[in-house]
Design goal:
There is one protein chain. By secondary structure, the chain is an alpha+beta fold. It is built from ten helices and 16 strands. It folds into two domains: 4-184 and 318-407, Aminopeptidase; 186-310, Alpha-Beta Plaits (2-Layer Sandwich). A hairpin with a 2-residue loop joins strand 1 (53-60) and strand 2.
Amino acid sequence: MADSASEEAVLKQINPDELVELAKSLVRIPSFIGEETALARWLASYFSSRGYEVQLQEVDKGWFQTVATLKGTGGGRSIMFNGHLDINPLATGWTRDPFDPWVEDGKLCGAGIRNMKSGVSSMIHAAEAIRKSGVKPAGDIVVACVAGELQGGSGTKYLLDHGCQTDFAVVTEPYGAHNVVTKHGGMSVFSLHVMGTHPAGDDLEGVDAIPMMMKAIQTIYDTKLTHRPWDIPGLPWVKIGSIIGGRGESHDLRSVSRNSDLCTAFVAVTTVPGMTSETIRMDFERSLSQLREEEPGFEYQLVHPVESKFNIWQVDHPPMDMPADEEIVQRVAASYQKVTGQPPKTIGAPPSALSARYGDDDAHLWEAGIPCPIYGPSGGSYGEDFALIDEMVLCSKVLALTALDVCG
């Protein structure tokens, strides 16, 4: 446990302007899913110039992530701050350049800032506050800037599989800097392919894959998923957020007056404890087989994991249900109280059940034996991409004190 003088010295290094400038630098480098390497290389240089031990990890050929370690003096416990570099595709509605970030009314706006370059910036700034203060914890502080979280956690799985093990971790996903999250759903994604046929004559005959897919989508939504009761309402949950139809395996779109002979939809399922990709498959297959009996021309394939060529979800995020009395949870909560004078608003499930629908890398860390809550700054929705600067600052302070407390 750190003394009050060390804590004060570290907190003096939390600088809102520097934090915002770091976050802007991250936003300026686009890092869509599968395209994180440029940002990973920038971060590797950033950390190397500041004396961290740096690994530029090749998750797949040409696909990199950055893991930096602020070495302790020895003998103390270690902590990992974990956040992902990949961002979602841009939503519509931008009226300014999304990669030229700006500040407005206490908000930092820009592509991917909410999910989750604000959290990545906050955890880096927390480690930097410790380094610049001159305080020397005994244990290591690992700052993992991972790839592929939006593919189910490919980057975090890679670092765990390649020997990165700490005593504790915190993932800085945007559930809000007044909440410590230990419980949420998992995620499993399938591709559903519906096949059409071209008749010998005109396309009044044969099977058009697109109308067939419309029936299949309703069937998927109507499927009753096998699961145990859980105390987060609204789960499990199914969402089909992407669909494409055309001709051939490439979904060629050019023959718009002809039957589609291949239509593909991507089915995301928020899971609860006890559910697996196999239980989901059995439920969907039962429903789709019934549709095939009703529609003799209906042919389909249900694929899991999704084919890599689509560059989307590859790994299942398991659901998360870590006890709220884990030591790291209590240390984050205690650090929050030191900074704010009061306990966190919530500890456990996210304050909104809607927020519990999405899997996160904390579940992979927990399954690997690393207790890991989520604690990170919040902001706007997917279509309104901003982060609250005051929460970013608060998050950095709490993480810095937590690292001091854990690492000794």
